[in-house]
Amino acid sequence: MRTIKASLLILFLLVASSALAATKTVEGSTTGKVYNELLGRWIEKKITVYVDNKGNTYIMPSDTVLPVRGVLTSAERRKAIALLEKSLKWSDTARKNKLETTRKLGLFMKSFDYREYGVSLTFFSANKGKQTNVILHLKDFENMFAEEELYLDPKEVKGLIALLKRASLAVKKLKKEAKKADELLR
What we know:
By secondary structure, the protein is of the alpha+beta class. About 40% of the residues lie in helices and about 35% in strands. The strands form two sheets. Strands 1, 2, 3, 4 and 5 form a five-stranded antiparallel sheet that branches. Strands 6-7-8-9 form a four-stranded antiparallel sheet. α2 (about 75-95) packs antiparallel against α3 (about 155-185). The radius of gyration is 20 Å and the shape is globular.
């Protein structure tokens, strides 16, 4: 009887860890800045990206009281990459022409149970084009009170583009690992 209980416990742990392995973190990170009104200064936050086995991509800043995870489908991820690349061209144009403007780049929001979640991207230029940012607004998919707005300069935008481009490879690796686990744990 004891052997059966131990075997069931091991089986349960393998199944539970397999369920938890349904996501994979994309290698690397970038940063963004959040203005802290209490401190009266900008605070840098690390941004990581992870994927699930359905191909969704999650953008998550660190050091938040509540975890904030903006989610993009694989099609939205490809569009977001194109829009972020477009923002780099706009940064050059704003700098050369001393432009001050705010423009919506992309809105990737979804609705569920009377709440919105997802990602929005806004281009921002100030100080006669000397300061250009993409404002990355994230609304968590599970907690309607968790949201974050990060300002990314062009270097940080390039870092986010690189992470998002590596996300498709992470999805392939995740699916390959899940297939291997299914074959070995029959």
